[in-house]
Amino acid sequence: MQQQKYGERGRKKERRFFHLSASFLVAGLLVTSLTGCQNRIQTEEQIVTPKEGTQAQETDAVAMGTLTEQLQMPERYQSSFSGDAVSVTADADMVVPDVEGIRTKRVRFRAFTQEDYDRVISVVPGEGQLWQRDMEAMEASHGFTKPELDERIAEVEAQKAAWGGHGDWEYEGMGITVDERLAQLKEQREAAPQEPVIREIPGEVKYVESSEYSEENMLMGYITVDSTDYAIDVDNMIYEGFCRPYFHVQKEEDNGKYFSYNRIDNEEELAGLDGLEDAQRFREDAQALADRLGLAEFAVRGWDPYVSYRNEDETIVADRVAYAAHLTRTIDGIPVTYDHEYGSGNEPYWPEEELNLFYNADGLLAFEWISPYEIEELSENYVFLLPFSEIRQIFEEMILKRYEDTFQEAGMTMDIRVEEVRLGYMRVRNKENLMEATLVPVWDFYGTKTSSGGSFTEPYTKDDPHASLLTIHAMDGTVLDRGAGF
User: Fold this and answer.
1) Is the whole-model pTM more than 0.70?
2) Positive or negative CA dihedral for 261, 267, 273, 276?
């Protein structure tokens, strides 16, 4: 078994989010702080406004004809309109599933099962015995070996030297001095074994209902396959006010090395990075892996780059690129639209389902499955959908209301360009019971937003293909908030 730097992980639970990292201070990622608020701008007028006089109805598909006939869609959505501060230009592809009609579905959260675990582990990383470091046997060294503590001691000593030998300075906000930290590590080294003490553990997934977090529902360890260690983390986190079961498998050697890349930054930074040319192959590999896992109903619907950085002559430079493939379900031929908003902005916390696969030039880095759910039929017949002409009118009215007042008051302007209009499922939570949800058909408008004036010295463009400009309920015209989930 490989002797990686696991240390105290066996003592306490470590959340393993591949795409969330404290290293967001990389300069290229700071732009988000300047513009992230744009996605949440609202006017004082409530933006969730159902179209008057329209009820969600079921209909006979034979009488209504095909879905495209019912929607009375144009080949492209083309329009141009503006307010005092906001202008919108649309020349957009229309993406509609090739089906006769759409039914609504009830969604119920569920915990991960032993069957889920067995089928994933048999493929990612492959069959193997789950193990952990024996933290009781290694308690005196906090789970570290002598070689690992030698590395940590060398790092602190290098930091002390960089600070001019000031051992009395506080060490990284720990409330102790540099010299006190060195003394701690050297004491641990004296008690540390040369090799890690390992204990095998059963790969058993559990879910015991509880009103508060229970470690009984947690499974964490490592599996070694072909001399490579994979961190396994399954946690059925379902308790009062919180519902976020998750299942992670990750190459331990790559843990924490890649950071979310904000695609609105300078794309030239990615040019020539190791792994960049493999993007299309990664997409194909991700779909093939989902099929091998028995998750053939999932398809790749989103794609984001992640970048690793290294220190070169005291300068942080981009080193390698990885990609996250975001997969969502296809249900009765209708895709669940992928969007960067998680639909979890309310308590109880219940984010939308995510299936993410991470790749770099060496292959699969990590598997991540969050918030699985069960699906039940809710409508026997196809539901009635508003013609696109009405959806278009709602979009053109409400996209201006979303931004006009705020940008005008700030002395700024915004230019919106709509490049794609997509019809698919969205999980909409029940406002009366936020732990109930329904898959309903929605229209999403995607494109770019360019802001000028105010604090911007030059125009700034927000270009995110997975951030909807506006989401509209296809049955009644309600404008939905993807962040809130309804």
Assistant:
1) yes
2) positive
